[in-house]
Design brief:
The chain is an alpha+beta fold. It is built from 14 helices and 20 strands. The chain has one domain.
């Protein structure tokens, strides 16, 4: 690298770091009293945040269906809870609440899932005789019938947004209702679509995508409001929606962009949609049937221009995913995102470990590599240069990987793997669909108040101590992931077998076993990550390496590369002029 290039590069780096630090300071804690500003900031962040991956049963190594959700909000609630199954008396009703996926409250005021009851919409809908048990965070993720969900915000045409309080249903509320009432993916989609049409969808949310799966099928479901003038008594539907099934031997992805193109409602095996899906677009000037072009859902309702190359990597997740799962297709970064196929047959079938690896991808070795050149600093930290939006962005509240396995009873077949914080420094922990309890540490926590009672903070604590010497410390994390994550993944078949044997004696015995296993494992992992953070603090203290066994330290390690030292010298010369 010439001195001229070093000077130019370092100048750009300094400007970037200044902007990066300013952004971090400004986003360190929005004033909850200014709710409008907070919501605007959160929703803007959400449009380029969550990634959802979908895997058909014949595209997976073990025959399971899979979905993922990287909840990359950066300021949202990360708490989880289990809602038990319940029976309800005839004539019972279900209250509907406004639930923002972005809003949190200070822990001193209480838990989010208690406080949302203050935002009662005034609507109560007829209750069903039996509601299923399920696990949820910002959204419902899996119920005891193996219906699973992942999420990604896609946005929509501005004129269709409905930020008023008139619509009774937000996205989170829809997913909770689906968890309570649906026993298949199709049923979940039809339920959410019909309820949104009847009672209205919007307020906190606009265009959204849900990956909806059961043990046999995986679907992309997209829903959009119908504008701020909609009223319940208008006689018109309060939402517009469409759904397309991922072929069983295919995989797909949603990186905050609409994925459904042309739809064929005569092919009921692969498409579902609102009855007015085309006519509404025509009425609102979003599609002209006289144009000679076929109707495209995404072009009408949620167009997104650009490619990985044209945006310099800002919207490169679409390309990166297809390049990773089907390299033989040789997809190009210059391909417009709107032109990528809905789904693709992967070059090899994906295991759950493969899917977890996809959620951790940082685009290393590509033109959008966040540590290329001097971008990552002396210790190749991918979090220093965030001009490209990679899959593992480093700001996740948590990430989920769900599995539906048709060859097992529902309580054993369904799995949701949960990893708190940035995927690269976190550990996936399994929770079966039949589990009736989550660790207490999953149910508490807040971005702005450190707490050793919160599971999420254990992983952030380790992540924080990785950042200064990333290339060194990430190896320690990888060793811990091998010990606590890979080992558990390998043990799942044996856990399944034991639970299946117990289930023959009665559901209760298997439920107790799975609950104890999952909670105990999670508590062990959380304890290990607290210790890992402590160990990293000691090991890399003062940017040296302290050997706690030999009680010595290495003053010349971690070693700063020569190119970095020369770059500093070049920058000094530049600054002296």
């Amino acid at each position: 690298m010439s001195k001229k290039n070093v000077r130019i590069g370092l100048g750009a780096l300094v400007l970037f770091l200044a902007g990066f630090l300013t952004a971090r300071i400004m986003s360190s804690g929005p004033a909850l009293s200014d709710w409008q500003e907070f919501t605007a900031t959160a929703e803007t962040a959400g449009l380029e945040s969550c990634t959802s991956i979908l895997v058909g049963k014949d595209a997976s190594a073990d025959g399971s269906t899979m979905t993922t959700h990287t909840c990359d909000c950066g300021i949202c609630d990360w708490t989880w809870r289990h809602v038990p199954a319940a029976d309800h008396k005839p004539g019972s009703t279900r209250k509907i609440y406004h639930i923002s996926q972005y809003r949190t409250w200070p822990p001193s005021e209480g838990l989010k899932w208690d406080l949302i009851k203050k935002d009662f919409t005034g609507l109560e809908i007829p209750q069903v005789p039996h509601t299923y048990g399920y696990h949820h965070g910002s959204f419902g993720y899996i119920n005891d019938r193996q219906v699973a969900i992942g999420e990604s915000t896609i946005g929509c045409q501005r004129k269709l947004r409905n930020p008023t309080q008139t619509p009774a249903l937000d996205l989170t509320m829809l997913t909770l209702l689906a968890m309570e009432r649906a026993s298949t993916a199709r049923q979940a989609i039809q339920l959410m679509g019909s309820l949104a049409e009847k009672y209205g969808y919007g307020f906190h949310d606009d265009g959204e995508m849900l990956a909806v799966a059961d043990p046999r099928e995986v679907w992309i479901f997209e829903i959009i409001p119908v504008g701020p003038l909609w009223k319940p008594d208008s006689g018109k539907p309060g939402a517009i929606w469409s759904a397309q099934r991922v072929p069983d031997d295919h995989v797909s992805v949603c990186p905050n962009e609409s994925r459904i193109g042309e739809i064929d409602l005569n092919n009921k095996d692969y498409f579902m949609a609102s009855e007015h899906v085309v006519s509404f677009a025509v009425e609102n000037g979003l599609y002209d049937p006289k144009s000679g072009q076929s109707f495209s859902w995404k072009k009408a309702y949620s167009p997104s221009e650009g490619s990985a190359a044209s945006t310099r990597g800002r919207i490169q997740r679409m390309w990166r995913f297809f390049d990773l799962v089907a390299p033989s297709r040789k997809f190009k970064p210059e391909t417009a995102n709107m032109d990528f196929p809905f789904s693709v047959k992967p070059d090899k079938k994906l295991s759950v470990q493969d899917v977890m690896a996809l959620t951790r991808d940082r685009s290393y070795g590509t033109p959008f590599d966040p540590v290329k050149g001097i971008r990552g600093g002396p210790f190749k930290n991918p979090n220093l240069y965030r001009q490209t939006r990679v899959i593992d962005d480093g700001r996740a509240e948590y990430t989920t990987v769900t599995q539906g396995r048709s060859w097992l009873p529902d309580q054993i077949g369904g799995l949701v793997w949960i990893a708190f914080g940035s995927q690269d420094t976190a550990c996936y922990m399994p929770f079966y669909a039949g589990v009736t309890e989550l660790p207490k540490s999953f149910q508490v926590g807040d971005h702005w108040i450190f707490s050793r009672d919160s599971a999420r903070w254990a992983f952030d604590y380790t992540d924080f101590h990785v950042q200064p010497v990333y290339s060194e410390a990430i190896q320690d994390v990888a060793a811990a992931q091998t010990k606590y994550e890979a080992k558990i993944i390998a043990s799942i078949p044996e856990i399944d077998k034991k639970a299946l044997e117990l289930s023959k004696k009665g559901t209760a015995a298997a439920t107790r076993y799975l609950t104890e296993f999952c909670v105990d494992n999670a508590n062990k992992v959380i304890k290990a990550w607290w210790k890992l953070g402590d160990d990293l603090l000691v090991k890399y203290n003062h940017m040296f390496i302290y050997d706690t066994v030999k009680r010595t330290y290495y003053r010349n390690r971690p070693v700063q590369p020569e190119w970095w030292k020369k770059a500093v010298e070049a920058f000094d010369i530049l600054m002296d002029k």
